[in-house]
Amino acid sequence: xxxxxxxxxxxxxxxxxxxxxxxxxxxxxxxxxxxxxxxxxxxxxxxxxxxxxxxxxxxxxxxxxxxxxxxxxxxxxxxxxxxxxxxxxxxxxxxxxxxxxxxxxxxxxxxxxxxxxxxxxxxxxxxxxxxxxxxxxxxxxxxxxxxxxxxxxxxxxxxxxxxxxxxxxxxxxxxxxxxx
Length: 180
Prior knowledge:
The chain is mainly α. The protein has helices at about 35-70, 70-80, 85-105, 110-130, 140-155, 165-170, 175-180, and strands at about 10-15, 15-20. It folds into 2 domains: about 1-30, no CATH class; about 40-180, no CATH class. The two termini are about 15 Å apart.
């Protein structure tokens, strides 16, 4: 755990008070112990697991809903919102939401899934929600924004130790840089 340590010293001179301030910055484990670091790492990985599962379930449900409505109905909806090449973009949305949602839940190829889902939400924002304001009740973008930012954050921090990415990174060293 990186922390900042600040140490202030004061000195008194004849006839006046003069304060000398010495600021030492230290990035490292100056106060924390290795046990506390390990514990915070587990807590972090558990938080990432919960976030991945929660966000993944939402995306998976929305993708399955599009599948349940049928490809033709989804394509028709994409046509009404003037999506570019609705036959392709509707299929992409289904694949990204179902595949990306499942990938987040499993912690599989998490950086790629997170980026794809964030881009999917960018498309939803631009095509559907941008002109409706912030609030969902008005057709706004708050839900799309939350899902997109959460997906991007998960892509940036990775899947954590409770994931298939962690297993793959240990088994396939070439993937380690991408998955962690």
